[in-house]
Design brief:
The protein has about 250 residues and is mainly alpha-helical. The chain has 2 domains: about 25-115, no CATH class; about 120-245, Topoisomerase I, Chain A, domain 4, CATH 1.10.132. It is about 50% helix and about 10% strand. The chain contains 7 helices and 5 strands, in the order ββαβαββααααα. It has helices at about 50-55, 70-75, 120-145, 150, 155-180, 185-210, 215-245, and strands at about 25, 35, 65, 85-95, 100-110. The strands form 2 sheets. It has a 3-stranded antiparallel β-sheet with strand order 2-1-3. A two-stranded antiparallel ribbon has the order 4-5. The protein is globular, with a radius of gyration of 21 Å.
Length: about 250
Protein backbone atom coordinates (compact mmCIF):
# COMPACT_ATOMS: atom_id res chain seq x y z
CA UNK A 1 0.00 0.00 0.00
CA UNK A 2 1.10 3.55 -0.64
CA UNK A 3 -0.30 6.85 0.64
CA UNK A 4 -0.17 10.31 -0.84
CA UNK A 5 -1.77 13.69 -0.22
CA UNK A 6 -5.50 13.76 -0.93
CA UNK A 7 -7.66 16.69 -1.97
CA UNK A 8 -7.90 19.51 0.55
CA UNK A 9 -11.09 21.03 1.97
CA UNK A 10 -11.56 24.60 3.06
CA UNK A 11 -10.76 25.15 6.72
CA UNK A 12 -14.20 26.63 7.40
CA UNK A 13 -16.04 23.75 5.70
CA UNK A 14 -18.37 21.65 7.83
CA UNK A 15 -16.89 18.29 8.89
CA UNK A 16 -17.67 15.41 6.56
CA UNK A 17 -19.42 12.49 8.25
CA UNK A 18 -19.30 8.98 6.80
CA UNK A 19 -22.87 7.58 7.08
CA UNK A 20 -21.52 4.10 7.90
CA UNK A 21 -19.27 5.22 10.77
CA UNK A 22 -20.07 5.90 14.44
CA UNK A 23 -18.68 9.12 15.91
CA UNK A 24 -17.86 10.59 19.29
CA UNK A 25 -19.46 14.02 19.74
CA UNK A 26 -18.18 16.98 21.79
CA UNK A 27 -19.65 17.20 25.28
CA UNK A 28 -22.76 19.29 25.70
CA UNK A 29 -21.91 22.99 25.50
CA UNK A 30 -18.54 22.34 23.84
CA UNK A 31 -17.60 23.03 20.23
CA UNK A 32 -15.52 20.91 17.90
CA UNK A 33 -15.74 18.31 15.18
CA UNK A 34 -16.90 14.72 15.72
CA UNK A 35 -14.22 12.03 15.65
CA UNK A 36 -14.72 8.37 14.71
CA UNK A 37 -15.08 5.52 17.16
CA UNK A 38 -11.86 3.54 16.70
CA UNK A 39 -11.28 -0.16 17.39
CA UNK A 40 -9.58 -1.06 20.63
CA UNK A 41 -7.93 -4.44 21.00
CA UNK A 42 -8.58 -4.34 24.75
CA UNK A 43 -12.29 -3.57 24.44
CA UNK A 44 -14.88 -6.03 23.15
CA UNK A 45 -17.13 -4.49 20.49
CA UNK A 46 -20.35 -5.24 22.37
CA UNK A 47 -19.32 -2.65 24.94
CA UNK A 48 -19.94 -0.04 22.22
CA UNK A 49 -23.43 -1.41 21.53
CA UNK A 50 -25.39 1.61 22.79
CA UNK A 51 -23.31 4.10 20.81
CA UNK A 52 -23.43 2.01 17.65
CA UNK A 53 -27.14 1.17 17.53
CA UNK A 54 -29.32 2.98 20.04
CA UNK A 55 -30.92 6.39 20.54
CA UNK A 56 -28.51 9.25 21.26
CA UNK A 57 -29.23 11.47 24.30
CA UNK A 58 -28.96 15.15 23.38
CA UNK A 59 -27.35 16.11 26.68
CA UNK A 60 -24.41 15.11 28.79
CA UNK A 61 -20.89 13.80 28.28
CA UNK A 62 -19.35 10.91 26.37
CA UNK A 63 -21.94 11.14 23.60
CA UNK A 64 -21.69 8.82 20.60
CA UNK A 65 -23.59 9.28 17.34
CA UNK A 66 -24.57 5.99 15.72
CA UNK A 67 -23.94 5.68 11.94
CA UNK A 68 -26.40 7.86 10.04
CA UNK A 69 -27.50 4.89 7.95
CA UNK A 70 -28.95 3.42 11.15
CA UNK A 71 -30.92 6.61 11.76
CA UNK A 72 -32.66 6.02 8.46
CA UNK A 73 -33.28 2.34 9.19
CA UNK A 74 -34.64 3.11 12.66
CA UNK A 75 -37.02 5.78 11.35
CA UNK A 76 -38.35 3.78 8.40
CA UNK A 77 -38.88 0.33 9.88
CA UNK A 78 -42.59 -0.55 10.12
CA UNK A 79 -44.43 -2.52 12.79
CA UNK A 80 -44.08 -5.85 10.95
CA UNK A 81 -40.37 -5.40 10.38
CA UNK A 82 -39.85 -4.36 14.00
CA UNK A 83 -40.46 -7.99 15.02
CA UNK A 84 -37.53 -9.15 12.86
CA UNK A 85 -34.00 -9.25 14.23
CA UNK A 86 -31.55 -7.11 12.25
CA UNK A 87 -28.05 -8.49 11.76
CA UNK A 88 -25.15 -6.06 11.35
CA UNK A 89 -21.56 -6.75 10.47
CA UNK A 90 -19.20 -4.29 12.15
CA UNK A 91 -15.73 -3.82 10.73
CA UNK A 92 -12.99 -1.62 12.15
CA UNK A 93 -9.41 -1.03 11.09
CA UNK A 94 -6.86 1.16 12.81
CA UNK A 95 -3.80 1.79 10.67
CA UNK A 96 -0.63 3.86 10.78
CA UNK A 97 1.64 4.36 7.76
CA UNK A 98 -0.03 1.49 5.88
CA UNK A 99 0.44 -0.84 8.85
CA UNK A 100 -2.74 -2.32 10.35
CA UNK A 101 -2.63 -2.03 14.15
CA UNK A 102 -6.09 -3.34 15.06
CA UNK A 103 -8.68 -5.30 13.08
CA UNK A 104 -12.24 -5.98 14.23
CA UNK A 105 -14.85 -7.98 12.35
CA UNK A 106 -17.92 -8.91 14.39
CA UNK A 107 -21.63 -9.57 13.96
CA UNK A 108 -24.21 -8.03 16.29
CA UNK A 109 -27.98 -8.56 16.45
CA UNK A 110 -30.34 -5.65 17.07
CA UNK A 111 -34.12 -5.70 17.64
CA UNK A 112 -35.44 -2.80 15.49
CA UNK A 113 -38.07 -1.94 18.10
CA UNK A 114 -35.28 -0.90 20.49
CA UNK A 115 -33.40 1.43 18.16
CA UNK A 116 -35.43 4.55 18.98
CA UNK A 117 -36.44 3.57 22.50
CA UNK A 118 -35.07 6.21 24.89
CA UNK A 119 -35.53 4.01 27.95
CA UNK A 120 -33.58 1.16 26.35
CA UNK A 121 -30.74 3.50 25.47
CA UNK A 122 -30.61 4.62 29.10
CA UNK A 123 -30.74 1.05 30.45
CA UNK A 124 -28.06 -0.32 28.11
CA UNK A 125 -25.68 2.57 28.68
CA UNK A 126 -26.04 2.22 32.45
CA UNK A 127 -25.68 -1.56 32.25
CA UNK A 128 -22.41 -1.21 30.35
CA UNK A 129 -21.17 1.44 32.78
CA UNK A 130 -22.00 -0.84 35.73
CA UNK A 131 -19.95 -3.65 34.17
CA UNK A 132 -17.03 -1.27 33.66
CA UNK A 133 -17.20 -0.10 37.27
CA UNK A 134 -17.14 -3.72 38.46
CA UNK A 135 -14.08 -4.30 36.27
CA UNK A 136 -12.39 -1.38 38.03
CA UNK A 137 -13.22 -2.96 41.41
CA UNK A 138 -11.67 -6.35 40.68
CA UNK A 139 -8.67 -4.69 39.05
CA UNK A 140 -8.04 -2.46 42.06
CA UNK A 141 -8.56 -5.18 44.65
CA UNK A 142 -6.29 -7.54 42.70
CA UNK A 143 -3.50 -4.97 42.75
CA UNK A 144 -3.74 -4.74 46.55
CA UNK A 145 -4.24 -8.43 47.27
CA UNK A 146 -1.45 -9.53 44.94
CA UNK A 147 0.86 -6.72 46.03
CA UNK A 148 1.57 -6.37 42.33
CA UNK A 149 3.79 -3.31 42.77
CA UNK A 150 6.42 -5.67 44.19
CA UNK A 151 5.73 -8.76 42.06
CA UNK A 152 6.28 -7.10 38.70
CA UNK A 153 5.38 -8.20 35.19
CA UNK A 154 3.85 -11.58 36.02
CA UNK A 155 1.03 -10.03 38.01
CA UNK A 156 0.34 -7.50 35.27
CA UNK A 157 -0.20 -10.44 32.95
CA UNK A 158 -2.47 -12.15 35.48
CA UNK A 159 -4.55 -9.00 35.90
CA UNK A 160 -4.90 -8.65 32.13
CA UNK A 161 -5.99 -12.29 31.85
CA UNK A 162 -8.52 -11.77 34.65
CA UNK A 163 -10.13 -8.80 32.90
CA UNK A 164 -10.16 -10.58 29.54
CA UNK A 165 -11.89 -13.56 31.12
CA UNK A 166 -14.43 -11.26 32.78
CA UNK A 167 -15.38 -9.46 29.56
CA UNK A 168 -15.51 -12.68 27.53
CA UNK A 169 -17.87 -14.30 30.04
CA UNK A 170 -20.20 -11.27 29.88
CA UNK A 171 -20.59 -11.25 26.08
CA UNK A 172 -23.44 -13.78 25.91
CA UNK A 173 -25.30 -12.49 29.02
CA UNK A 174 -25.18 -8.99 27.51
CA UNK A 175 -26.69 -10.24 24.28
CA UNK A 176 -29.48 -11.93 26.24
CA UNK A 177 -29.99 -8.79 28.30
CA UNK A 178 -30.45 -6.60 25.21
CA UNK A 179 -32.90 -9.06 23.61
CA UNK A 180 -34.86 -9.27 26.87
CA UNK A 181 -35.54 -5.51 26.81
CA UNK A 182 -38.08 -6.05 24.03
CA UNK A 183 -40.50 -7.10 26.80
CA UNK A 184 -41.26 -3.75 28.41
CA UNK A 185 -43.04 -5.12 31.46
CA UNK A 186 -40.02 -7.27 32.47
CA UNK A 187 -37.25 -4.70 32.04
CA UNK A 188 -36.56 -4.06 35.71
CA UNK A 189 -36.46 -7.78 36.42
CA UNK A 190 -33.97 -8.23 33.59
CA UNK A 191 -31.86 -5.35 34.91
CA UNK A 192 -31.70 -7.19 38.23
CA UNK A 193 -30.64 -10.38 36.45
CA UNK A 194 -27.92 -8.49 34.58
CA UNK A 195 -26.59 -7.04 37.84
CA UNK A 196 -26.45 -10.52 39.35
CA UNK A 197 -24.63 -11.94 36.31
CA UNK A 198 -22.06 -9.13 36.24
CA UNK A 199 -21.13 -9.42 39.91
CA UNK A 200 -21.05 -13.22 39.67
CA UNK A 201 -18.63 -13.17 36.74
CA UNK A 202 -16.53 -10.45 38.35
CA UNK A 203 -16.14 -12.42 41.58
CA UNK A 204 -15.49 -15.64 39.69
CA UNK A 205 -12.77 -14.07 37.52
CA UNK A 206 -11.14 -12.54 40.60
CA UNK A 207 -11.23 -15.75 42.67
CA UNK A 208 -9.80 -17.88 39.86
CA UNK A 209 -6.99 -15.45 39.09
CA UNK A 210 -5.92 -14.55 42.62
CA UNK A 211 -5.37 -18.26 43.30
CA UNK A 212 -2.35 -18.16 40.96
CA UNK A 213 -0.55 -15.45 42.91
CA UNK A 214 1.30 -17.76 45.34
CA UNK A 215 0.90 -20.46 47.96
CA UNK A 216 2.99 -19.15 50.86
CA UNK A 217 1.27 -18.16 54.10
CA UNK A 218 1.29 -14.41 53.44
CA UNK A 219 -0.04 -14.83 49.88
CA UNK A 220 -2.82 -17.17 51.00
CA UNK A 221 -3.91 -14.73 53.71
CA UNK A 222 -3.96 -11.85 51.25
CA UNK A 223 -5.93 -13.96 48.77
CA UNK A 224 -8.70 -14.62 51.28
CA UNK A 225 -8.76 -10.99 52.39
CA UNK A 226 -8.92 -9.95 48.74
CA UNK A 227 -11.84 -12.27 47.99
CA UNK A 228 -13.79 -10.87 50.92
CA UNK A 229 -12.95 -7.26 50.04
CA UNK A 230 -13.95 -7.88 46.43
CA UNK A 231 -17.24 -9.47 47.48
CA UNK A 232 -18.15 -6.54 49.74
CA UNK A 233 -17.30 -3.88 47.15
CA UNK A 234 -19.16 -5.67 44.35
CA UNK A 235 -22.19 -6.08 46.58
CA UNK A 236 -22.25 -2.37 47.41
CA UNK A 237 -21.84 -1.43 43.76
CA UNK A 238 -24.67 -3.79 42.77
CA UNK A 239 -26.98 -2.35 45.42
CA UNK A 240 -26.27 1.23 44.31
CA UNK A 241 -26.81 0.35 40.64
CA UNK A 242 -30.15 -1.34 41.31
CA UNK A 243 -31.35 1.53 43.48
CA UNK A 244 -30.50 4.00 40.70
CA UNK A 245 -32.40 1.86 38.20
CA UNK A 246 -35.45 1.74 40.45
CA UNK A 247 -35.20 -1.94 41.37
CA UNK A 248 -36.32 -2.79 44.90
CA UNK A 249 -33.54 -4.48 46.90
Amino acid sequence: MSFEMGECRQKDAAPWVDPFVAYHLPNEGKTGSPWPVLPDGNKALWREFAGLFLYLPNKGRNRVQRPLILERIANEVDEVDSMTMLQFRCIGVEASRAKVLEWIDANLSVPPSLMNDKEVSYLVRNATQFAEECAEIISGVFGSAANSSRRGERHKVLKSQMLNQYWQKLAEPFRSFVLSLVEKDRRLRNVEQWAFEVTKQAQSAFDETIAHVGDDAISLRKQEEGKQDCRIKLSKKQKKYLEEEGVAT
